[in-house]
Amino acid sequence: MVPLLGVAVMLGSVDKVSLATAAVMGFREDTHLVGQQYSLTSSAIYFGAIAAIIPSLMLMQRLPPHIYISANVTIWGIITLFGSDRIDVVNPRRATYSNSLYLFHRILPLQRDFRATLGWSFLLWGFLPANPTKARWLSLRQRVVATRRMQDNHTGIENKTFKRDQFIEAFLDPKTWFYFLINISLNVPNGGLVGFNSIVVKSLGFTTQTTLLLGIPTGLVSWLSSFFWGWVATKTGKRHLSAMGSCILPLIGTFLLYKLQRNSVALLYLYLCYMYWGPYIVMMGSMYANTGGYTKKLTVYAMSYIGYCVGNIIGPQTFLTKQAPLYVGGVVAMLVCYSAALVLMGLFWLYLRYLNAKKATEYERLKTQLESEDQLLSDWQDLTDIKNPRFVYAL
User: Which CATH class is domain 162-395?
Assistant: First the structure.
């Protein structure tokens, strides 16, 4: 499942960041964008995402996941077909043919990416299982173990029925709004960096081709950050302290970018800033682990994803054209948001400790009754985290 879903996400990410690549290759000039119009184009995709997330999750609750996901990947591929093949427009044949980035873009420019995305959607259709019991490559025992693992998490099982009480509970639960606000704070820098990283790098005096090459490590830095801090969170069992720790390096990188002179060394600060993906991934893991009830889980995910989109909408708008090439407003916004994220994650950690203490008191009060009940039956009742007295929040 990891390769199937990972490549699908990668194809979508290649398409999403192509705008920033095009920006240093003449896109803004060719399309006559002025003022904040380029910033608006960077934000535009997220307005659509906000409009689609609630109906999308409702459909996903009713349709087989492999069919719905593969259909979405197909539609995304069709949408990218209408994008311009910027690599052909700027005629990079002047570049050295051994250039690895040039080769990459010759393999996956926008219009060719449609065929790759479409082909991958067929693989998702054929091999992505709807649930552990439908995974054809697993033995019967492995399917049972995978299913029991969901039981042990106490987070609820797949349920095709929309539960209004869980939907309402999600909005009344303070945890939902913590995830929403934390995602906004973490993704304002994300939106700004994705849209303007190439522009800032080129302003340091690099050629277009070198600028594109220097953009390659940003993805590696983001991946390593998420992988390392995810490992730390799992190893220590302290998700939120790990998320706070992972926020410190991008905060330091942003501070150095704000205070020190912009020169080629500034690339190191930019790479530090790209470690923002670590806290986002760890906090998403927290959301899945700390939310019980299938309808509630989908609703909380929708709200956290809307926070992600709002952050990515705001981010590019903080990079004002009149402040180029330093974009002081954008850098200050990143500093403020990383600091806010640290404070919010700290408060959230304290809140979860309070909830666990409250749960422990409730369990002691109902201990005799709970121990006489069939726990297996309780675990499969699709209870929310609030209503399940056995639920323990992951710190």
Answer: mainly alpha
DSSP notation for 39-68: HHHHHHHHHHHHHHHHHHHHHHHHS-HHHH
- How much is the pLDDT for 380? 64
pLDDT recorded at residue 115: 67
Residue whose structure tokens are 């380029």 = 38
CB 147, CB 133: distance < 8 Å = yes
Q: Looking at residue 377, what is its pLDDT?
A: 57
Per-residue model confidence (pLDDT) at position 86: 42
Beta strands in the chain (DSSP E): none
Two tokens, residue 325:
């090439």
CATH 1.20.1250.20 positions along the chain are 162-395
Q: Check residue 59 and give its pLDDT.
A: 84
What pLDDT does 240 receive?
Answer: 93
Of the candidates 101, 366, 312, 363, which has an alpha carbon nearest to the alpha carbon of residue 193?
A: 312
295 — alpha (psi -120 to 50), left (phi > 0) or beta? alpha
Helices (H) and strands (E) counted in the chain, each on its own, are: 19, 0
- Residue 104 is predicted with a pLDDT of 40
Helix (H) or strand (E) holding 389: none
pLDDT lower than 50: segments of the chain: 84-90, 92-112
Establish how many alpha carbons lie within 13 A of residue 307's alpha carbon, considering only the half-sphere containing its beta carbon. Answer: 22
Closest Cα to residue 272, out of 282, 258, 286? 258
Rounded (to 5) percent helix, strand, coil in the chain: 80, 0, 20
- Residue 106 is encoded by which pair of tokens? 């010759």
**Nearest Cα to Cα of residue 312 among 134, 3, 46, 93:** 46
DSSP string for 111-127? HHHHHHHHHHHHHHHHH
Q: How far apart are CA 280 and CA 240, in angstroms?
A: 11
In angstroms, the CA 161 to CA 221 distance is 41
Residues 234-268 have pLDDT tens digits of 899 899 999 999 999 999 999 988 888 877 777 78
